[in-house]
């Protein structure tokens, strides 16, 4: 069901008619108890849970654990614990709800969940990424106490190639509606004809009648614009049989719609209302965006008739120090960083992401490749989804499409990533089956799959003929041959790059390296498990950022690229073993601090004027340093050291940066970009002195006291003149008082084994980040940071 959380004030805010809202949607995240272990008797009302921990969902118990070299989750999941856990909650249902249908909705539980209400099992759901729900009505004690218990079993390991988290890690809602109501994920809105002059709207509404008698009702559809004004409506009188579900159709026309795009993501809403006689018995909201798009085998992708390269990034579902905990504020921060970089597309790797992620992609203007599976019947790790494939893949795929098919941001469905069935004939039948399932529910979007094999004879997924778009992972050097090899096919780079960087670390080298050169080969890595932040180190299967982008940029037939990855993520710390526990692939580090290559993309993908120089300017006397500059909107850049010009340089041919070799001397390194002789931008980096002050910068000035809102505070070590001390590794202690609580610390260092939940954090290359969450108190938050030998620093954040 496409519902928005009441706590973020997005829930059914529009009332087309002057009547009370009929559908009741309650945040069901609060007042749970939790305990690690297996407690089958916890389903009973008289179970003693006095020693269980009280908490608010969403919750991920893995992120709270200690890193362990011998953890069953292994390196792929960052050496964090998994296991089994139980959640339990007592709650009262109003007696007035006795005539209603009451259900519970889980946005995601990792994994193998079983839900019990008053001792009765409602069902199991193995897939940890799928949203699901249960009808509670027949089991409830109305006007009395009820007990819900949720068993979560993430003990069979390893079961993933990346960090999954463990627990009820996404939101939970309680929904009450009249017996006559819109069904779960019960609307499907399409726009069969779209133009700036006129658009047609086709709405399919599934109505559930839980009464023992047939019903007659009025179905009202209202189209509401972003200013909450009704711009179109349609009413019909309908009939429905007893104890049944039936689909009803509404067709509308809207003149001069505002089109949804990545630049102006204008959103409408469809308000569906059900009236029995004159009584409003249900109201349901569906997102709507008017847009049309096309993939072309020669010209790539276009949106609303405008050629548009997909500037995409792949994202995993974890939120850094929060682990797998889903929080709309964490996602908004992540997507804002990507938007400011110039990205316009997101690939949901490699599984369904949260409802909030989909909503924000709609609102912020991202084109989405929505991905269902990382494995089919053939496993990648011992206990992954292949064990559940036969019993669950059809149901999971159907629910995935039903939940997400109304989002205008979604422009393609991916049925798999690097699937093993590519390499044998079983891939033909499975691909056709999955594509058929998707098309049975949505014919408005193409189906793709992320392929690794570009030899036609070896690729049985391609041979199925069921894909509308060919997505290829890596092998950028082969792209030029694709138009001849895959004649008439629409093609994109579904995954690319896999370059390696550690923020703020710079090895002086002129050589592009692969670490390692092939699987299992030794390589000359760094003793401290870092990788240079110059774009010079890549995985053996990948490319540097510049190598890949030069290729994509020059080939019109490529619809675009999805960089692996937008952010570092927990797990898969190639190329290093323990203690490395998170990835090196991100353009932004795990703490949310951009690496230098971020500005290469910003100079190429965005309209922002960019001048970025690297590295820092704290080295040894006369050491020869590579100075790089990313820039745009200028003809040249001139570099100065302590006021002396080191020469002007311009990008030649397909260059994406310029560079100088400079013998270090302390002082000021200054870059000046010019266009037609006029200064465009100036940037300076100064040699920092001794650490003098802890600087605290909050990403926003206020938060809500709703127990969900977050504020991220960047902690930097400065010298007496305000320069970042680039090699500072001081331990900073934190104290949070007032209306907030500390929920995460991170410094972006991939081999940091300190807890994400500690009250302290070592700076890494001068910086770390503290995450504070509202605790519900109406008091302003104060963060105090202390370290040995320096005065404490404080920052206050207003609580509304």
Automatic annotation (TrEMBL):
Belongs to the glycosyl hydrolase 2 family. Residues 299-450 form the Glycoside hydrolase family 2 catalytic domain. This is Beta-galactosidase. Keywords: Glycosidase, Hydrolase. Transmembrane segments: none annotated. It comes from the Bacteria. It holds the Pfam family DUF4982. One of its GO terms (molecular function) is hydrolase activity, hydrolyzing O-glycosyl compounds. Residues 694-796 form the Glycoside hydrolase family domain. GO terms for biological process: carbohydrate metabolic process. Residues 27-175 form the Glycosyl hydrolases family 2 sugar binding domain. InterPro entries: Beta-gal/glucu_dom_sf (IPR036156), DUF4982 (IPR032311), Galactose-bd-like_sf (IPR008979), GH (IPR017853), GH2_Domain-Containing (IPR051913), Glyco_hydro2_dom5 (IPR040605), Glyco_hydro_2 (IPR006101), Glyco_hydro_2_AS (IPR023232). The lineage of its organism: Bacteria, Pseudomonadati, Bacteroidota, Flavobacteriia, Flavobacteriales. Residues 623-680 form the DUF4982 domain. Residues 188-291 form the Glycoside hydrolase family 2 immunoglobulin-like beta-sandwich domain.
């Amino acid at each position: 069901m496409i519902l928005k959380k009441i706590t973020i004030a997005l829930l059914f805010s529009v009332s087309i008619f002057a009547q009370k809202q009929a559908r009741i949607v309650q945040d069901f995240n609060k007042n749970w108890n939790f305990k690690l272990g297996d407690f089958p008797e916890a389903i009973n009302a008289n179970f003693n849970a006095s020693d269980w921990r009280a908490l608010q969902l969403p919750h991920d118990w893995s992120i709270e654990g200690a890193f362990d070299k011998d953890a069953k989750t292994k390196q792929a999941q960052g050496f964090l614990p998994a296991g089994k856990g139980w959640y339990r909650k007592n709650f009262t249902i109003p007696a007035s709800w006795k005539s209603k249908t009451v259900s519970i909705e889980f946005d995601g539980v990792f994994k193998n969940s079983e839900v019990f209400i008053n001792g009765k099992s409602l069902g199991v759901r193995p897939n940890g990424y799928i949203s699901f729900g249960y009808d509670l009505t027949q089991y409830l004690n109305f006007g009395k106490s009820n007990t819900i218990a949720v068993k979560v079993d993430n003990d069979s390991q390893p079961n993933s190639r990346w960090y999954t988290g463990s627990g009820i890690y996404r939101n939970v809602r309680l929904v009450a509606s009249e017996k006559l109501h819109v069904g779960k994920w019960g609307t499907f809105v399409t726009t069969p004809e779209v133009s700036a002059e006129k658009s047609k709207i086709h709405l399919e509404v599934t109505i559930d009648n839980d009464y023992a008698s047939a019903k007659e009702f009025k179905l009202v559809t209202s189209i509401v614009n972003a200013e909450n004004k009704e711009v179109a409506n349609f009413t019909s009188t309908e009939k429905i049989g007893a104890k049944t579900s039936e689909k009803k159709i509404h067709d509308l026309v809207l003149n001069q719609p505002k089109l949804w795009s990545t630049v102006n993501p204008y959103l409408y809403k469809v308000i569906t209302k059900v009236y029995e006689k004159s009584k409003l018995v249900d109201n349901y909201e569906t997102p709507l965006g008017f847009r049309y798009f096309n993939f072309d085998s020669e010209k790539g992708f276009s949106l609303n008739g405008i050629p548009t390269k997909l500037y995409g990034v792949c994202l995993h579902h974890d939120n850094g120090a929060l682990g797998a905990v889903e929080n709309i504020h964490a996602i908004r921060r992540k997507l804002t960083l990507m938007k400011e970089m110039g990205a316009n597309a997101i690939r949901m790797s490699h599984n369904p992401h949260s409802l909030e992620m989909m909503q924000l992609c709609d609102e912020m203007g991202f084109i989405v490749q929505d991905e269902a599976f990382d494995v089919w019947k053939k496993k990648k790790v011992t206990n992954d989804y292949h064990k559940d494939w036969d019993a669950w893949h059809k149901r999971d795929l159907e629910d995935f499409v039903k939940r997400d098919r109304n989002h205008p941001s979604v422009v393609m469905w991916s049925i798999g990533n690097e699937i093993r069935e590519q390499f044998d004939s079983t891939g033909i039948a499975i691909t056709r089956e999955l594509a058929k399932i998707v098309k049975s529910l949505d014919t408005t979007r193409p189906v793709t799959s992320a392929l690794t094999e570009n030899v036609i004879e070896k690729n049985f997924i391609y041979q199925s003929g069921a894909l509308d778009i060919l997505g290829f992972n890596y092998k950028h050097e082969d792209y030029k041959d694709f138009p001849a090899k895959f004649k008439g096919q629409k093609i994109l780079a579904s995954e690319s790059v896999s370059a390696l960087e550690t923020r703020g670390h710079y090895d002086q080298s002129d050589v592009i390296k692969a670490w390692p050169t092939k699987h299992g080969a030794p390589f000359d890595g760094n003793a401290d498990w870092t990788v240079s932040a110059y774009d010079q180190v890549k995985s053996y299967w990948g490319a540097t950022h510049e190598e890949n982008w030069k290729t994509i940029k020059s080939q019109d037939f490529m619809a675009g690229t999805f960089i692996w990855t937008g952010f570092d993520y927990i797990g898969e710390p190639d190329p290093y073993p323990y203690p490395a526990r998170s990835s090196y692939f991100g353009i932004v580090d795990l703490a949310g601090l951009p690496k230098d290559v971020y500005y290469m993309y910003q100079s190429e993908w965005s309209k922002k004027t960019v001048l970025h120089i690297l590295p820092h300017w704290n080295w040894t006397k006369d050491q020869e340093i590579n100075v790089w500059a990313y820039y745009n909107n200028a003809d040249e850049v001139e570099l100065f050291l302590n006021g002396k010009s080191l020469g002007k340089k311009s990008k030649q041919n397909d260059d994406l940066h310029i560079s100088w070799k400079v013998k270090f001397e302390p002082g000021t390194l200054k870059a000046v970009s010019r266009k037609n002789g006029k200064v465009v931008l100036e940037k300076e980096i100064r040699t920092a002195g001794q650490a003098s002050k802890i600087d605290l910068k909050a990403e926003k000035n206020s938060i809500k006291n709703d127990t969900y809102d977050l504020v991220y505070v960047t902690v930097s070590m400065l010298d007496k003149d305000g320069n970042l001390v680039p090699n500072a590794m001081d331990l900073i202690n934190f104290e949070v008082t007032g209306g907030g609580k500390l929920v995460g610390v991170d410094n972006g260092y991939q081999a940091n084994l300190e807890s994400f939940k500690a009250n302290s954090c070592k700076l890494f290359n001068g910086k770390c980040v503290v995450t504070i969450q509202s605790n519900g108190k109406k008091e302003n938050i104060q963060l105090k940071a202390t370290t040995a030998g320096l005065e404490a620093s404080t920052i206050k954040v207003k609580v509304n």
